[in-house]
């Protein structure tokens, strides 16, 4: 009851302080509002950006390794760039060998890409045709909305079957059911066996938007576009165990060196690229941006803290007589102390809530394909920071009020 009474009385005094001099209070709260808006605004933008980027990276299998000719960070390596061009491309034979020998792999696929126009009657769609092997959907997100995925016999026998992206299906078939219908790609007929669930426009579409793709068996793709040159990108997914990706990387490296007959001191003539390295790199960048935003916002919060402290000193001065009367009636020092601390926290929370409201309103602004979301964790963080600033700003005025001599306080004018 004492705590509740103390809280209600502190809110009443804080509200009186607001009403007694609205302009002074608004100007003092402005620093807290701007500070919270700056910090939570940056955190919200970075969190939203990180969510969109990671959603894009998840489509390429974050717990997997890409075996390719070139490394993704070619500019960061001291390896002579011209030597990369002399490397051989990963082959279908190497893919089959790895599939049969790798013990730490959960799934493995080989892929290749080419652009082509898909046609059906008078409709056409310029699409990215991607050749994949059977286990592609076990590594990359490929949710089937209609129909089914490839059978292993279909991919191994290079059957003329296709899975369409949502946009391709809408353009070629409209409201018709595309399953078991035929389309033409580069003059060849394909039977549609499935349609991928619509993903929509993403901020980061690594490897292309699946809505605009046509998936066909890898061997069929190579016969159509590469005259039987069976090369592509091999992707291997690690088993879901601690350290699985590192163990898999070591095994893949050893197997590839063996398959290519490399001597112990010879350099690798292949690249092992890991999407999780991109995720970690992006996480580091986002962490730096958060830190910068916090530091910038902290200066505004410090200014707001000084403003709140000024209000509290004025409030103590104006209520010196009341403090004296309360102490003469038996009020303890901690009661006076907490009374002013609660008032300072209330004022800071008010400024913080206004700052959060501004961030929430800004979240409705559409920035391309990025969805801005003010998360509950950021809201709680903003309120906690506001409370801490309130405690720090009100501590000295509260101590000053709590340590007043009641006789001197009552006589004060």
Overview of this structure, please?
This protein has two domains: 187 residues, no CATH class; 182 residues, no CATH class. It is 55% helix and 16% strand. It has 14 helices and ten strands. Strands 2-3-8-5-7-6 form a six-stranded mixed β-barrel. It is elongated. The mean pLDDT is 84.
Question: How would you summarize this macromolecular structure in one to three sentences?
Answer:
The protein has 413 residues and is an alpha+beta fold. It has 14 helices and 10 strands. 36% of the residues are buried.
The biggest sheet, with number of strands, parallel, antiparallel or mixed sense and barrel status, is:
6 strands, mixed, barrel
Structural class: alpha+beta
Rough outline: elongated
The SSE string, one letter per element, is HHEHHEEHEHEHEEEHEHEHHHHH
Task: Tell me the distance between the termini.
Answer: 33 Å
Low-confidence stretches: none
Major sheet strand order = 2-3-8-5-7-6
Mean pLDDT: 84
Radius of gyration of CA atoms, rounded to a whole number: 32 Å
What is the multimeric organization of the chains shown? single chain
Tally of structural domains:
2
Report the count of strand segments: 10
Tell me the β content: 15-25%
Question: What's the total helix number?
Answer: 14
Helix content: 55-70%
């Amino acid at each position: 009851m004492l705590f509740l009474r103390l809280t209600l009385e502190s809110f009443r005094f804080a509200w009186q302080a607001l009403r007694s001099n609205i302009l002074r209070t608004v100007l003092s709260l402005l620093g807290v509002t701007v500070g919270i808006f700056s910090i939570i605004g940056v955190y919200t933008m970075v969190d939203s950006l990180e969510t969109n980027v990671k959603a894009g990276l998840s489509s390429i299998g974050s717990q997997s390794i890409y075996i390719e000719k070139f490394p993704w960070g070619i500019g960061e390596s001291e390896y002579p760039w011209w030597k990369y061009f002399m490397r051989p491309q990963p082959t279908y034979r190497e893919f089959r060998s790895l599939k049969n020998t790798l013990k730490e792999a959960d799934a493995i696929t080989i892929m290749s890409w080419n652009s082509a126009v898909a046609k059906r009657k008078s409709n056409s769609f310029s699409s990215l045709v991607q050749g994949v092997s059977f286990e592609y959907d076990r590594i990359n997100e490929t949710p089937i909305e209609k129909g089914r995925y490839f059978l292993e016999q279909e991919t191994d026998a290079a059957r003329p079957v296709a899975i369409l992206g949502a946009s391709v299906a809408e353009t070629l078939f409209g409201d018709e059911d595309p399953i078991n219908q035929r389309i033409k790609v580069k003059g060849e007929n394909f039977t549609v066996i499935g349609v991928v669930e619509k993903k929509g426009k993403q901020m980061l579409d690594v490897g292309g938007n699946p809505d605009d793709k046509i998936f066909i068996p890898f061997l069929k793709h190579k016969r159509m576009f590469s005259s039987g040159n069976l090369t592509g990108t091999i992707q291997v997914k690690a088993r879901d165990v601690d350290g699985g990706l590192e163990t898999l990387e070591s095994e893949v490296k050893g197997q590839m060196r063996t398959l290519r007959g490399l001597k112990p001191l010879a350099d690798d003539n292949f690249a092992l690229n890991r999407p999780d390295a991109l995720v970690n790199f992006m996480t580091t960048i986002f962490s730096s941006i958060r830190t910068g935003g916090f530091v910038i916002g902290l200066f505004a919060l410090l200014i707001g803290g000084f403003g709140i402290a000024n209000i509290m000193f004025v409030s103590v001065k104006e209520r010196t007589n009341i403090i004296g009367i309360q102490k003469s009636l038996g009020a303890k020092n901690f009661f006076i102390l907490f009374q002013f601390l609660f008032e300072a926290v209330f004022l800071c929370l008010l400024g913080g809530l206004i700052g959060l409201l501004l961030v929430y309103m800004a979240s409705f602004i559409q920035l391309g394909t990025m969805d801005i979301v003010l998360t509950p964790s950021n809201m709680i963080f903003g309120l906690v920071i506001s409370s801490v600033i309130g405690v720090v700003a009100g501590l000295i005025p509260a101590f000053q009020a709590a340590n007043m001599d009641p006789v001197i306080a009552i006589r004060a004018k």
